[in-house]
Amino acid sequence: MRGIIDRFEGDYAVVEKENRKFVNIPREALPLEAKEGDVIIQVGTEYRIDQSETEKRRKRIEELSRNLWE
Q: pTM of this prediction?
């Protein structure tokens, strides 16, 4: 599974999957440094942050925001 952390609600992360459906993942199952906007992947029974995809996504969002205000 691959998804983006949309938000945290209590003890759960609300994650949007590639098919645009949302799932709740226990916060304790994610890396401690996980935050909103991070791209996560499931490897076996654990979740990891995909640093490369997260950074690409952040740069794209910054660019879109910058273009919006020009």
A: 0.89
